[in-house]
UniProtKB/TrEMBL annotation:
It holds the Pfam family Neur_chan_LBD. Keywords: Ion channel, Ion transport, Membrane, Transmembrane, Transmembrane helix, Transport. GO terms for cellular component: membrane. This is Uncharacterized protein. The keyword Transmembrane helix applies. The lineage of its organism: Eukaryota, Metazoa, Spiralia, Lophotrochozoa, Mollusca. Belongs to the ligand-gated ion channel (TC 1.A.9) family.
Amino acid sequence: MYTNVSGRQCSSIWHLRDSVVLLSFILIVYVPKINTQTSDDAKSILKKLFTTDAYNKAVRPTYDQSLAVNVSISYSLTGIIEFDSQKESLTTSGYLIITWNDYYLQWDPANYNGTSIVFIHQDKVWKPDIALQNGILEFKGLGSSDLLVTFTNDGFVSWWPYAILQSTCTVDITYFPFDTQSCNLIFTAWSYYNTEVLLTYGSNGLMLNQYEENSAWIVAGSDVGPKKGSTDATLIFTLKLKRKPLFYLLNIVLPVLMLSVMNVCVFVLPAKAGEKASFSVTVFLSLFLLLTVVAAMLPQNSTNVSFFGIFMVIMISYSTLTVTLTMFQLLLNSRDVNINPIPSWLITLTILMSRRRSRTFSKVRPAAQSQNAHIISISEYTDETTLQVKKSEVLPPSADTKLKVTWNNVSNSLDIVLFLVSVIIISLILTLLMVNVAK
């Protein structure tokens, strides 16, 4: 009985020993494959590529030098720093994602413990000398010597240079302040033609997922494509920027419209009022001041003119005419009818305007005339300054009643005519302005 138990124990011990040996064998075989990639592997790869294989960054990274290197570019816009419409310059911030395949940067990962990606400074490898073609500042390549590029074992190179770009942008102010501008960012590989380096846009094109909204402009759209008809290696990113008009509506457009209404109201003041001339001059100076403010915001070119600028020039011209007419009215109001008789056509105009107003005039009655008021009807006038009324229709036959027209009456009638004409003209101009802006 004792011997039998001991045999079972020995058998268990042998099975345990076999399991330990098997586990040790598995660990010896497979554990080295778990912890594979080390810094020594990366150093070995760089040594192989740049020392043993003598990598030369001046050589285009394709074995067949008659073929073009396909370079893919995407642009991620992070912000619009400034859009100076007067200087016609756009300053943006963002980064480019530039990728290509380098035939000479390849290795077998199995020889380097599965290492498939390596980092290196951008100046150590070939890269397209891409720069902003329509930049305002001096020529400067993308990135810096401190920036790294990554490349994989199959030669796929990825370069992400960040840049603050200042480019030119032709401004169309026709519909200011409701305008939309189209600005181009033109990237080109300066040293190559498109038969040597072909710039194409990536699947993402122009990205706005990290864009921070600007307080003055809205990105209304974007586009990307090659420069048509060009043999250069060029790619164009287009930004469509729509102006936010609220600031200009409150500070420029609305004051101009109110001054335009006040320009018409000059003819509401009677000629006897001493403020008529000063009021018209004040409106003129206010419009002129606003015109200088608007001109300071717009580019100094003659390519196109804004409808709003044309409207302001018309209002200033009309204000100049208003001041001139006001001075002429004051001159008429100061005349004496006995020295300067009133022309017959002005008398007719005054009568017509006075009928629309009240059908009553100042009447010269005898001292014994009754206090009863009557509305008189005009039949004919005997000279240039007085009208004879049919006495049988209005007053007793003994009354010698006449209607007297003075220069002040003429001035007041002109006010009515000019006010109505001004309202019609301003309404037509505003209608035409709104129709053109709506287009």
